[in-house]
């Protein structure tokens, strides 16, 4: 009887361990709260005319990068007919640093495996910029989101990723992200020193 009870307890412990690591442990990790605390939310808003001017300038710069197949636009799927959409521009308090979320709109015929059910597909990425005189110098953050069939869904997703989950798990690494895009501390973080050195 003791042998059977010992076997049952061992089986239960093994099952509980398996269940924990396959169903619970991972979810605890994903539920980590990385929202920006309210007191650190960046409330900087550019004037409407300045935002529009920056949007037009950035769209033109991104179109040049696209035609040269540089940065995020390295792929040959991007062509002169690719539409550039400036989704969001965030500004530092002094308005000299920018974080840009950009989307592209392409016909599905340009996909490696075209989606016959849709006419368009959308990709997205993020860039950081520093204002220098009348230009904005850009650096690609290497994040990319591909092949969405819904522009609004992709827009919501990349905003979520940059406003709530941009923070790195390990912030001891030199290239880690310590703050989300919407955190006022983001603009003075160590990553900007690296970016300004690159520019």
Q: What would you note in describing this structure?
A:
The protein is α+β, with helices and mostly antiparallel strands and 199 residues long. The protein has a single domain, classed as Roll (Nuclear Transport Factor 2, Chain: A). The chain has 4 helices and 4 strands. The chain has a 4-stranded antiparallel sheet with strand order 1-2-3-4, with helices on both faces. The N and C termini lie far apart (74 Å). 20% of the residues are buried.
Characterize the quaternary organization of these chains: single chain
Q: Can you tell me the CATH topology?
A: Nuclear Transport Factor 2, Chain: A
Shape: extended
What is the tally of beta strands?
4
Radius of gyration (CA) equals: 22 Å
CATH class: Alpha Beta
What structural category characterises the helix and strand content?
A: alpha+beta
Briefly, what is this?
The protein has one domain (40-198): Nuclear Transport Factor 2, Chain: A (Roll).
Strand-helix topology:
Layout: H1 2-30, H2 48-68, E1 83-91, E2 97-107, E3 120-132, E4 135-148, H3 151-163, H4 190-198
Antiparallel strand pairs: 1-2, 2-3, 3-4
Give the tags.
extended; 199 residues; 4-stranded antiparallel β-sheet; 36% helix; 4 helices; 24% strand; alpha+beta; Nuclear Transport Factor 2, Chain: A
């Amino acid at each position: 009887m003791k042998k059977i009870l010992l076997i049952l307890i061992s089986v239960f412990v093994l099952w509980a361990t398996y269940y924990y690591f396959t169903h619970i442990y991972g979810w605890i990790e994903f539920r980590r709260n990385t929202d920006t605390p309210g007191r650190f939310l960046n409330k900087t808003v550019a004037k409407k005319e300045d935002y529009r001017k920056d949007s037009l300038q950035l769209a033109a710069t991104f179109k040049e990068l696209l035609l040269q197949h540089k940065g995020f636009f390295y792929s040959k799927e991007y062509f002169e007919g690719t539409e550039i959409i400036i989704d969001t521009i965030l500004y530092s308090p002094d308005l000299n640093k920018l974080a840009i979320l950009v989307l592209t709109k392409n016909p599905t015929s340009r996909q490696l495996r075209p989606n016959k059910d849709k006419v368009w597909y959308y990709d997205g990425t993020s860039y950081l910029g520093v204002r220098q005189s009348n230009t904005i110098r850009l650096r690609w953050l290497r994040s990319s989101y591909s092949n969405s069939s819904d522009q609004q869904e992709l827009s919501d997703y990349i905003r979520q990723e940059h406003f709530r989950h941009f923070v790195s798990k390990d912030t001891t690494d030199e290239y880690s992200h310590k703050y989300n895009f919407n955190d006022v501390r983001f603009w003075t973080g160590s990553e900007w020193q690296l970016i300004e050195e690159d520019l």
